[in-house]
Structures are given as structure tokens and as C-alpha cells.
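Hello again, I could really use a second opinion on something today. My current little project is about how a certain protein chain folds up. You're getting the sequence in one-letter code plus the fold written as C-alpha cells. Here's the protein in full, and shout if anything looks odd to you:
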Amino acid sequence: MEIGALYTAFVFTLIVIVTLFKGVRIVPQGSKWVIQRLGKYHSTLSPGLNFIIPYFDKVAYKVTTKDIVLDIPSQDVITMDNVVIIANAVAFINIVHPEKAVYGVENYIIAIQNLVQTSLRSIIGEMQLDDALSSRDTIKAKLKTSISDDISDWGITLKTVEIQDINPSPTMQKAMEEQAAAERQRRATVTRADGEKQAAILEAEGRLEASKRDAQAKIVLADASQQAIEKVTQAIKDQELPVMYLLGEKYIESIRAMATSANGKTIVLPADIPAAVRGIMGGVTK
């Protein structure tokens, strides 16, 4: 009889301990627990010490309240001008109302990923290729606006969404590279032709300027010679000796130039230079 009473007391104590254990819940910081009573949503437990009714209440979901990073997989997107580009993104969300998140949609992670992908295709599909490649901030703003309203019904806040990559497809990249190479080649050809044209113009202008200078120099020399002859003529008048001196000087300079030239071999000077000079100007002195 005593053994039976002890057994009953042990079982009763064990039941009490288990009941107390099941009625106490300690929720860690950064989490919220969703409680169901008899299969129906009852309450949401906040971080700290909480009490529930054992056997009636059940912790159905444990939800984090920290920011969640969602990687949006890459996908093919067609722009308005029918060009295929590859785009992906990353979204940062925070669960504000866990009960709405777990009961509002079957899987809020997959739901948000699909929602971002769909919105991204829709936004880029209304843009030209060049605009899509250069308007990340615009795409980001439109994407955030379109998603925020939808996921707010699930008790989730979109902190931000970032466009990671927007790249043309490999085929389009190859075509763009070929186009860019052709454009660079065209610019190089035009630049080279312009350079050759400018060089030819400058060379012609140089020849023209040199010809003008040569002509001016010849005119100046002719004027100088004319003036020199006039002055000599006025100075010597009927006297022969100064003329003989000037012509003799020119004659000797010419002989010296011939002697120092590359073709000069042997120069024979006349024995009587004055007679030779006089012979040269014989027609003049007569």
C-alpha cells in the first residue's frame, strides 16, 4: 500500500513538473513566437519570459525579427526594344507582424522572391536597352514602390532592394563588342585621314610661303643690285679704274668658288688679271 502511494505521488509530481515546463516559454531576443490555442491563432509571444496554457496552447511558429537578406536569382528580361538582358537583385526585409507573415502566405520567402522577379521584369520591359543599363536608381525606386504595398499585407516591411547586375546576354554582349570595335575603327580611320589632310595642307602652305619669300628675296636683291649699279655709275662716271677694281674683285671671288667646288680639279689663273678684266669689259669701255 505504501509503495502504491509513493508511485502515485511520483507520477503526480512528474505531471506537475511537465505541466509547469510546458507552460513556461522563454523567447530569445530577435524572435517572436506565434501561439495557437486548439489549432487557432491565439497570440504572439515577445522576447523574454512568457506563460501559456499547457496542452491547449502550442508554439506553432518561431519567427525572427531581424532583417532578412533575400537573394533574387538571375533571370532573363526582355527590354522594350526586344533585347535580352540578365538581371538579379537582393532585398532586405523585416517581419513586423509574424502572425500575418505565417498565416497570410504559404511561404513568404518564395513569395517575395517571385514578386521581386515579376516586378523587375515588368519595370525593365518598359525601358529601352540603354536606359535599362544606365538607370539602376530608377529601377530600384520603382521596384521598391511596387513591392512595398504588396508585402505590407503580410506584415513584412521592405527595408531596401538593390540591383546587383544588369548585363546583356552573351550574344548581345558579343554584338555590342563588335559594334564598339567597328565604331572605334571608324573613328581611328577618320582621325588618321584628318591628320593626313592637315599635314598636306600645312606642307602646301609651307611651300607657298617659301615661294613668296623667295620671290620677295629676289626682288629685294634685284633692287639692291640696281641701286648698287646706279650708285657705282654715278660715282665712277668716266673713270675706268674703280670699275676695274670692282670687276676684278668679283672675278677673283668667282675663281675661288670654282677652285673650292667639288667638281673643281685644276684652275689656271691668267698671268695678267687686269688685262683679263679689261678684256671682259672691253665692250663696255669702248
Observations:
- The mean pLDDT is 85.
- The chain has nine helices and eight strands.
